[in-house]
Design goal:
Radius of gyration: 22 Å
Structural class: mainly alpha
Order of helices and strands: HHHHHHHH
Oligomer: single chain
Helix content: 55-70%
Number of domains: 2
Distance between the termini: 71 Å
Strand content: under 5%
Number of helices: 8
Length: 259
Amino acid sequence: MMLSINDNQFYIQIQSIIIHLLSTIFVTLIISIGLVTSTQISGYHLQNVYFLVNKNSCTCDCWDGFFRGKHSRGGYKIFYFNYEQQIIIILCLIIFYIELLRQYIIKIIFNKQFILLLLIPAIYSNFYGIWSIINYINDGDYYRMLKSQIYFSLTELIVTYIFYQCLIIKNKKHISIWFIYILGIISFLHVIIAFGELNSDEIGRNFALILSDLINLFWIIIIFIKNSRLRPNKQTICISLCITLCLWLFYHIVCQFRE
């Protein structure tokens, strides 16, 4: 009996290791495809397109190389980074979002929660936002675009979490009413701000970024149609509009994109 229990625990551990490895591989593939796709949508800088790297003669004098210890920092490297506090922030952001993505993949593929496929556009928005933040930090662009992107990324993360919670609850009547209202408020706010800053040259990117918000709003409408109990009354509508206005003002006063 003891042997069977130990064998069972062993197989469970092996299974968890395999799931971890497979989910890590899937995450790597998704991020790689996502980076290529998002860059294709946003477009390329012409200087980067025609800039060819000679790996044999390449040198870089713009990094300290401290993390390499006793090894030389000279010659071509796959990646460079300096020993500064910003790299810690970047690593924390990368690890945080990658782990979220890995858990998401596990729930879909291994736990077969296919309803979570509705979050795919939100994943794109989240990773586009966090990749932009990483680039702004890396470029030292702290004043022009960073605040705006942090605002969008943080609110996008909040609505993604709320929508995730709403999707995994089987009985929609048990969903917190204010979960739905906050989801609607932030999603509506994203759409309004996006249209206010609409750039005809990047219409594809803009649509891809608000697609998750449009899905959220459409889902909320369906929930309201099916569950009259969840529909807002006049007081709730007024409170929601006040919250929306406050968030809108906060963005334009504190976090707005600066040319």
